[in-house]
Design brief:
Blueprint (H helix, E strand, L loop, with lengths): L17 H7 L4 H8 L20 E7 L5 E7 L1 H13 L19 H5 L7 E8 L1 H4 L2 H10 L4 H11 L17 H12 L10 H8 L1 H13 L2 E6 L2 E6 L1 H20 L3 E2 L5 E4 L5 E2 L2 E2 L5 E2 L1 H17 L12 H15 L1 H12 L4
Antiparallel strand pairs: 1-2, 3-5, 3-6, 3-7, 4-5, 8-9, 9-10
Length: 352
């Protein structure tokens, strides 16, 4: 892999050898190799729970509404500091495609949805297992094209990727489908971007740059507009696009498969005028707006929290119920400042 010409303009730190990399990260050479774990020793540590003390990540298994499993991989303190340095001094300097709106400074869920307001037809597609689908080899290839020598690029990639050890799956819920568990373990067993690492969102965007280029060009050829927010893809257009939207969706899925991604076909939606055109929690028929029913439900929940206490409203036993409500209020406030301020006033009255 040769460095791309554009990398010379990014102003990345110069790291020519493994010794320079260790000095840059303030690590001993043995520590650097241990954190990067290019030999996969952590993934093959066995089934003993005692191995968790030596692992670089904390693991938590979530069950998706679709029935699948998602592994949250949160780096421990030292590795997290290393990843934050890579993020701020390398990844934040790499430009992303103009169609990418997730985890990009100055862009948001609103900028993702706004280009699709008032269009005759909106096509929404979701990627399946977005972060774990981006392999360690793809991440290492990015660092090589950014200008780093192969040994340095491989270690940088190792520091930003992870392979989930077998013992981490001991916490999977009893009764989960055996085939689902098997497929999840196989997916997460190879080095991939961990969902929970500070570097993963930025690396996902740069590794998806080629995908964004291809889909943006395909959309332009069909008279459509393209944006992406993490694993949410949105296309919209008028008459020309409306006549070919189903065939267009098939071509998108084919391109994504060529690039190593899969579409969650059950979540694909073709939304024409006359129905609610819905993108990432926002309605885009006439203007970017929150869903009225969701707003009313949140307002009622906050009202009941003020009147009766939050415990009775936390029906799912969420240990972070306060943060959950604060996040939902912040989401509304980002789109509707006045509504958001009313909700924040109610939030402040809750006795926690």
């Amino acid at each position: 892999m040769l460095p791309v010409a554009a990398a010379a303009k990014w102003g990345l730190p110069t790291i020519e050898s493994l010794i320079e990399l260790a000095v840059w990260l303030q690590l001993h050479a043995s520590e650097l190799a241990w954190f990067a774990d290019l030999k996969g020793l952590g993934a093959n540590a066995g089934a003993a729970q005692s191995k968790a003390k030596l692992a670089h990540y904390h693991y938590r298994i979530l069950t998706k509404k679709s029935g699948g499993l998602r592994m949250i991989e949160a780096p421990k303190a030292h590795l997290k500091l290393i990843q934050k340095q890579i993020l701020t001094e390398i990844l934040d300097r790499v430009p992303v495609h103009e169609g990418a709106h997730g985890f990009v400074r100055g862009r948001s869920i609103q900028s993702f949805a706004a280009p699709h307001v008032g269009r005759r037809v909106v096509l929404r597609m979701d990627l399946e297992d977005f972060f774990p689908s981006i392999s360690g080899r793809r991440v290492q290839a990015f660092f090589r094209t950014a200008g780093y020598p192969e040994p340095v690029a491989d270690l940088l990639g190792g520091l930003c990727t992870n392979a989930v050890p077998r013992w981490a799956w001991a916490g999977v819920q009893a009764g989960c489908d055996t085939a689902t568990i098997f497929e999840a373990r196989k997916l997460y067993a190879r080095p991939h971007l961990p969902q929970g690492a500070p570097t993963s969102p930025a690396l996902a965007n740069v590794c998806a740059y080629r995908v964004d280029c291809r889909l943006s060009a395909l959309a332009a050829s069909a008279g459509a507009t393209y944006t992406r927010y993490a694993d949410d893809l949105a296309f919209s257009g008028d008459g020309e696009f409306d006549r070919s939207v189903e065939r267009f969706a098939s071509r998108v899925a084919a391109i994504l498969r060529e690039e190593g991604f899969e579409v969650q076909h059950r979540k694909t939606r073709v939304m024409r005028q006359g129905v609610r055109q819905y993108l990432a929690g926002l309605v885009v028929n006439a203007r970017v707006n929150t869903v009225r029913a969701d707003y009313e439900l949140l307002k009622a929940t906050l009202h009941n929290c003020v009147r009766y206490g939050p415990a009775g409203q936390n029906r799912e036993g969420d240990m972070s119920f306060r943060e959950h409500l604060e996040g939902r209020v912040a989401f509304v406030a980002a789109v509707h400042p006045q509504r958001g301020e009313r909700l924040r006033a109610m939030l402040r009255k809750i006795r926690w």
